[in-house]
Amino acid sequence: MNSLPESTIRERVEALAPWFHDMDLGGVRTAPDHFLWGYPESKFKHFAHAIPENLSGWSVLDIGCNAGFYSLEMKRRGAARVLGIDFDDRYLAQARLAAEVRGVKIEFRKLSVYDVAALSERFDLVIFMGVLYHLRHPLLALDLIHEHVARDLLLFQSMQRGVDDVAPIAADYRFDEQAHFNEAGYPKLHFIEHQYSGDWTNWWAPNAACSAAMLRSSGFEVVDHPESEVFMCRRVNRPTPAGAIYPARPNEGATGA
């Protein structure tokens, strides 16, 4: 642990307020009035068992690291290399302070998820927690993670709304079949045009079926679902090509397009 006096830590924490990650840094809580007290540790305890306790020799990429809670936890578990990226300068400053107070060496860089190809590196574990619903282009982000930085495991979480039930989905439907779209457990990604919970960056709210389906479509096999919003995935081959536009259009005209 760093030997900074508590008064200095408190002064530096207050200078970087507000904090979204509520952590104990040398006896100073970073967000004591957080509406989810102790977040994200209060959430993490429900799925911490899904991550190996011993990460010795592992490399970890924490996308959207915020103030660094997960980066610090992966380092505590012995990860050899931890890289946290975020596009918010204040969050990165908070994360660097947290690592300094905890006395650990973690690299933090200003990058967005759309920039991960620039890393030219793959990681044993990619953490993608609390980011997808803030993105204008969520599937693009998952595709980029799969293509450029994920070597094996992906820890994923998104705010979800709707039912947790997952309806059975056929591999294909006739064009005139529409009833399945109205089933509560069909994969649905709700678009938020204005604000949700006072935050205009909350663009999307998938249901549980949609989160899993988006992960599978991007080449991530769900191997554990330890908490309602959390999925542990393994990188596999994509089921289809990516393609921002149709690379080929079999049965041209079948949908009336």
CATH superfamily: Vaccinia Virus protein VP39
Distance between termini? Answer: 62 Å
Quick one: how many beta strands?
11
Mean pLDDT equals 93
Judged by helices, strands and strand pairing, the structural class is alpha/beta
Order of helices and strands: HEEHEHEHEEHEEEHEE
Q: Do you know the CATH topology?
A: Rossmann fold
The 3D shape can be described as globular
Number of helices: 6
Task: Characterize the main sheet.
Answer: 7 strands, mixed
Q: How would you name the oligomeric state of the polypeptide chains in this document?
A: single chain
- What would you say the CATH architecture is? 3-Layer(aba) Sandwich
Strand order, largest beta sheet: 5-4-3-6-7-11-10
Helices and strands, with pairings:
Layout: H1 6-15, E1 24-25, E2 28-29, H2 41-44, E3 59-63, H3 69-76, E4 81-86, H4 89-102, E5 107-110, E6 123-129, H5 138-149, E7 150-157, E8 189-191, E9 204-206, H6 208-217, E10 220-227, E11 230-235
Parallel strand pairs: 3-4, 3-6, 4-5, 6-7
Antiparallel strand pairs: 1-2, 7-11, 8-9, 10-11
Could you characterize what this model shows?
The protein is α/β, with parallel strands linked by helices. It has helices at 6-15, 41-44, 69-76, 89-102, 138-149, 208-217, and strands at 24-25, 28-29, 59-63, 81-86, 107-110, 123-129, 150-157, 189-191, 204-206, 220-227, 230-235. The chain has one domain (52-235): Rossmann fold. It is built from 6 helices and 11 strands. The strands form 3 sheets. The protein has a 7-stranded mixed sheet with strand order 5-4-3-6-7-11-10, sandwiched between helices. Strands 1-2 form a two-stranded antiparallel ribbon. Residues 253-257 have low confidence and may be disordered.
